[in-house]
Amino acid sequence: MPPSTPPLSPNRHPLRLILPVAPQPLARDRFAPQEQTPALSPIAALAWLDEHQGQGLAVAGVELAGPGDPLATPGPTRETLNLVRQRYPELTLTVTTLGIHGHREVKTLAEHGVSQLTLMVAAVDVEVVKEVYAWIRPGKRTIPLAQAAGLLLQEQAACLAACLQAGVAVTIRTVVQSGINDRHIEAIASQMAALGATAMILIPGPPRGDGERTIPAPSRGRMRGLRAVAGRHLPVLEAPAAALDPTLPTAASGSLRPRPSRSRPNVAVVSGDGLAVDLHLGQARRVLIYGPREDGLVALLASRSLPTAGGGASRWQALAGLLPDCFALLAASVGDNPRAALQGHGITVLTTEGEIEGAVDHLYAGGKDSSPPPGTRP
Predict the structure, then answer these.
(1) pLDDT of residue 215
(2) pLDDT value of position 56
(3) CA–CA separation, 233 vs 175, rounded Å?
């Protein structure tokens, strides 16, 4: 059926700020960059929103999306929603997700003020799903891709059904990848419309490669044709401006992103194997210290033992005292008490999962010497 409303253009679309509070992914796009972007804590995300509201930006809504999936770690997602709703009850709250676990979480999301959900659907065919994703991890363990692909499609359908029951509107978001899923766009639109989706957004995928082949970006003409085809089944909207325009504010580039200073040039990392950020801070016995060497390259500088478990708040105060040269700490998860203690000493706590190298590289802008000019404070 034809769109019920004309497509929105980016310059007419209300600004929607993206709050990246989800540290854990549920899948990995086969062609996506491997950079590990740390997630903001709910409190840091609210502070970032406060900052931009204070600047007078016309913010109409908040979207919880990335760097992982908000439904993989529902705790931070719920906390962020609560904080934003209490401070800014007029803002529209949206969650962007693959939909895994959605049938269990949607009712709670609605109770926390979510009125819209963006469901990321790359395909409705198992074989195409296998072409798009390198792995899909519905639980703590990665399962065979053939099994996981079918499970993903089942979970997305169940998520949509739960949204209908909870009164949450669903927009389908599909990244168009040339030669991978571009021939399946009408099938996606048709099936999602039948399941109750209310609109669709098509995003042209950038040129990509996996070492064996290069995938070009779809042309403008190709995208126009695909939008027309999808529009037979669902209203096709332009993506919100914040999702398309890199010059608009994002949490990753906002002033709350922790940065090294002359007095705090290093970052502390919690790791069990020395390769990945994979431990809760309370489980760790040591932290790895990364920072710039004399030649400006960022590298592992030292390993420091953590204070012995026990002692309550004094343990975290002691830990803060062991990190006077660190501007941030990376861990898979962190409790409220240690987070507050560390942040009270000027150490920003970020949660992420994945390789240490990618997460640290992100904080140092690609590993380059990022020491700020004289006078900069942590």
Answers:
(1) 79
(2) 67
(3) 18
Query: Regarding beta strands 114-120 and 169-176, do their DSSP bridges make them parallel or antiparallel, or are they unpaired?
Result: parallel
Q: How far is it between the farthest Cα atoms of the chain?
A: 65
Structure tokens at 376: 């900069």
What pLDDT score was predicted for residue 241? 54
Q: Which residues of the chain have pLDDT under 70?
A: 1-14, 33-36, 55-57, 209-213, 240-257, 311, 365-378
Beta bridge partners of 93: 62, 114
Spatial distance between the Cα atoms of 163 and 250, rounded to a whole number of angstroms: 27
- How far is the CA of 76 from the CAs of 45, 53, 192, 333, 355, in angstroms? 10, 21, 28, 10, 21
| pLDDT of amino acid 314 | 87
Domain 15-244 falls in which CATH fold?
TIM Barrel (3.20.20)
Nearest to 359 by CA among 39, 28, 30, 69: 39
What does DSSP assign to residue 282?
A: G
Q: What pLDDT score was predicted for residue 7?
A: 34
Helices (H) and strands (E) in the chain, counts: 11, 18
Rg, the chain, Cα only: 21
**355 bridge partner residues:** 276
Residue ranges per structural domain of the chain: 15-244, 266-363
**The residue count for the chain:** 378
The pLDDT value given to residue 313: 80
The count of other CB atoms within 10 Å of the CB of residue 123 is 23
Backbone angles phi, psi at 205, to 5 degrees: -70, 145
Amino acid letter, residue 369 = D
The token duo for 105 is 């979480």
* pLDDT at site 212: 67
The domain defined by 266-363 folds into: Nucleotidyltransferase; domain 5 (3.30.420)
Q: What are phi and psi of 97, to 5 degrees?
A: -155, 160
Residue 350's pLDDT is: 86
